[in-house]
TrEMBL record:
It comes from Triticum urartu (Red wild einkorn). One of its GO terms (cellular component) is nucleus. This is protein-serine/threonine phosphatase. One of its GO terms (molecular function) is metal ion binding. PANTHER family: SERINE/THREONINE PROTEIN PHOSPHATASE, SERINE_THREONINE-PROTEIN PHOSPHATASE PP1 ISOZYME 9. Its EC number is 3.1.3.16. The lineage of its organism: Eukaryota, Viridiplantae, Streptophyta, Embryophyta, Tracheophyta. It is an enzyme of class 3 (hydrolase). Keywords: Hydrolase, Manganese, Metal-binding, Protein phosphatase. It comes from the Eukaryota. Residues 35-209 form the Serine/threonine specific protein phosphatases domain. SUPFAM superfamilies: Metallo-dependent phosphatases (SSF56300).
Length: 229
């Protein structure tokens, strides 16, 4: 039976659990799972409700897998965000104090958390080629990490050819989990796995001939966060 717009909001917990079960089992078996538009919309509605009920600075414990974006503080040592640092960001309490929902401003802390980028060749803060937000050098990154007793920043926001890319002697990593992005980029995707000892490994996703992502290879023990690199 096709779900109507009126019935979308009436999906009970059991029905939602069944959709999640189908997705998980299909993923394990490498099968595609067909969902109706109504089911997809309701998943988004429920996900939004869950996200808004959580704090801005979500504190989670390893082990965890990072796919694309995860915005959290992992074991008080790994800070995850979409974009990057901001000249206005000095401590993590500032992230907790951001009010949601919010319109994304053209400048300032929230804008930078979403849209700033590391600058491989520059120091300090610089102008971004995107025309919005800023860039930050390795010096600004190290200063922020040391001040807040962090080991690593994990972020997304940029297509990287190998699915992941390090910056500043492995103190920041860009994770991009969508291979063949938009059908326009010849990139692979990557997942970052962090175990209970904060050891990191990467799982590489490469598009196959049909354009469907598949696991290609795994690169173990890169880097060792909280231990030797």
């Amino acid at each position: 039976m096709m779900m109507t717009r009126a019935s979308m909001g009436a999906m009970e917990g059991a029905a939602l659990d069944e959709v999640v079960r189908r997705l998980v089992e299909g993923g394990r078996g490498g099968r595609q799972v067909q969902l109706s538009e109504a089911e997809i919309r309701q998943l988004c509605v429920d996900a939004k409700r869950v996200f808004l009920s959580q704090p801005n600075l979500l504190r989670i414990q390893a082990p965890v897998k990072i796919c694309g974006d995860i915005h959290a503080l992992i074991d008080d040592k790994i800070l995850c965000m979409h974009g990057g640092l901001s000249p206005e960001l000095t401590n993590l309490d500032q992230i907790k104090d951001i009010e949601r929902p919010a319109e994304i401003p053209d400048y300032g802390l929230l804008c930078d958390l979403l849209w700033s980028d590391p600058s491989p060749d520059g120091e300090g803060w610089g102008e971004s080629d995107r025309g919005v937000s800023c860039t930050f050098g390795a010096d600004m990154l190290i200063e922020f990490l040391e001040k807040n007793d962090l080991d690593l920043i994990c972020r997304a926001h940029q297509v990287v050819e190998d699915g992941y890319e390090f910056f500043a002697q492995r103190r920041l990593v860009t994770i991009f989990s969508a291979p063949n992005y938009c059908g326009e980029f010849d990139n692979v995707g990557a997942l970052l796995s962090i175990d209970e000892n904060l050891m990191c490994s990467f799982q590489i996703l490469k598009p196959n001939e049909t354009g469907t992502p598949r696991v290609k290879r795994q690169i173990p023990n890169k880097p060792a966060i909280g231990g030797s690199a």
